[in-house]
Every structure is written in structure tokens, then in C-alpha cells.
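Troubleshooting log. The previous structure file for this entry was overwritten by mistake, so regenerating from the original sequence record. Sequence copied from the archived sheet and checked twice against the printout by T.R.
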Amino acid sequence: MEKITEIQNYKSSLFQYISLQSFNELKIGILYEPVKLFEPENFANLDIEDIESLFVQFYTVNDFLNTNRISFINFNKFEIFKNESYISVKFEIQLSDFDSNSAINILVDLFRNHKYFCDLSFSNIHDKYLNLLQGFKKIDELYIYKYNEFSSNFLNLYNIENIKKSSNTAIKIVTENNVLNKIIKSSLYSNLYSNNFFFYNIEEGTDNLLEYIVRNNQNDFNNKKYDFIEVIGVLEDYILKSSIRSVIFFVDRILDIEEESFFKYLLTMTKIKNIVLVSFNIDIGGVFDVELNEFPENYFYDKTLFESENINSSDNLKKPIKKNSDDIPCIDEIIDINNNSVTNLLKIAEIYRKNKDYNNLFKTLERFPKNIPDENKSHYYYLNYYYKDRFIS
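Regenerated output below.
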């Protein structure tokens, strides 16, 4: 149970998750999210942007695992997900300990399957990571949260239905994105499911609230029009005659006037005294007993790396580009375009790469000396490979 509790604390798009758990004195039941395993040899078929993004994700996860001494991620087994906007990885979890020290070895061996990373080694892997961060576009769908840092976690630690004794309870949770809403809902559901709680999830796609409630409580639902007084009666009949300990409503979309009136009446005027309303960013005038602000840290985007001025984050994309010459856009510093030092040329070439100015990138690569200092070789080889892969081929 200690291991399961540890796993459940980490909510991440990059880790397989436990969909449901149940336990008693005799056994523990665990339902895992399915993971479709990706064959490592298929790395060779990925294009350069995808392999760069995956490398940043793998390395960032590895660094997070080591920092937090996490041993339930299996670096050998993972799924690769791709859509029109981004590519991402999801690692399989395991209850037995995985040797996190071997993860870096696995990472090197995996990425050597791609021609771009054929020279990857333990000595240059960190430098490659830092170089690739310069062009990494922030993907909002990537996240690692620690659930014990959520203010709403206290709802799992106490009897949620007894926050107000002998009365119904209304809780408002203010979040900054829908990912947090889903994490909170799934965590409450997973923790309370086996304790005779009944859940209604009112979100986008749940068009008619009253029909939705009746349909979930009557086998003979016949599509007739119900007013909210009739629906209250259906709920009372169902709840008072059942063994249900409490009914929890998740409200995750804007309510119309009738729906808002329904909840106000349900919470204050009915015989039912074991209702919990959890609203996400939705105001229901004057009914809330508790309000929580939920802005946890996303550990995938380490502040010391991803929030530096050079990283291509969504905030930095909004900044106006300052031009210091007709040729070269410079985002954060003035660069001497005539300076032929290797460090300066790398900066110039990197800007042309980001702006997909392949002609000037080629001209800049031609200006490099024959003897490149060892500390700059990996970055220089990367730029050469990028140009040949994108422009020549």
C-alpha cells in the first residue's frame, strides 16, 4: 500500500496512471491505464523535431526521478503519442523498484537508434539537453504534479460529506486549466469510489442536467420533460432508500438559470443531507461553504531551466522581437554579426535555425573555423545535421 500511495501522489501526463484501486483485508485490486508499448528500433523513423522533443522529455523525466528518488517508472517500457500539435511519451509504472541509476544508460542506448543522436554519450548528454532546451516549444499538455501539494487534497483526508455536519456542502475550486480539474476529479473518484459514494460529473457534453440525473437513477427513463422539482423527488427516492453514503456533484461547465436554481434548492431545501457539490471555476450565487485556490507547481517545467530568458515558452512567444540589424533578429541580447568567435557564431546560427532561415544558416556554418573547441563540438555538429536534414535532403 505504501508503494501505491507513492505512485498515486504523482499526477503526470508522462506516467501511466492507476485508474482505480480497491482493497480489503484479503486483497488489493488495481486497474491500470492501458499503455501501448513503442518499439525502440522505431526511433530511427522519427523526424528531427519529434526526436528532439522526446529527448527533452526523457531527460527531464530522468532528472525528476533522480531528484525525487522515484523508483516506480520503468524506462524500458513506454508509449509514444503523437497528434498534429505535439509528440509525447508515457512511461509504464511498476510496483517493484526500478533501478533509476540505469535510466541514463537506457536513455543513451535508446536515442542512439536515431542517426541524429549517433554520437550520444555520457559525457555529452547533458550539453545536448541544454542545447535542445533553447529551441523547445512549451507543450501545455506535459505536466508532473505532486498531489500532496494540491490544496484540494484535504478533501481526501477528511470525511468530505461532513465538512458541514448534518448539512449539504458546496465547495468551489479555482484552477488555471482543465488538466487540474481532471486530476482532482479522478483523485476524489479513485479514493472515494469504494466507500459508497455516488458521482455525477457535469461537464461539457452533459447538455441536459435534469435528464442526465434521471437517466442515472431510473431504469424506465422515457425521455419525458422533467422540471427540477420532479428530479429532486427522483433523487430523494433513490438516495433515501439506498445504502449510498453521499452523492457528489462535479460541476465543470457553465450552468443555465434552471440548473443553478436546481442546485440552490437541492442544497438548502430538500430532505437530503449528504450532498457534496464541487464546482470548478463556476459561480453558483452564494452557496459555497469553502473556496480553494489551486495553482500547484508543474515540475516538468523546472523554473531554473524552462523559465530562463532563452527558452521558447508560451510567455516569451508573446514578447516583441527586437531587431539589431536588417539580417538578424535578436531576442534577448545584442549579437555582433561580424564577430567570428565560435561562441558568437553558434548564437547567430541558432537564431537562424529557430527562424528557419536556412540560407543564412548555411552561410554562418561556412564561417566556422576547422578546429572547433571540444566544448562546442556537439552544438556545432547538431547545427550541421539540422541543416543537412532539413535543407539539403
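Residues 308-333 have pLDDT under 50 and may be disordered. Archived copy saved in two places this time.
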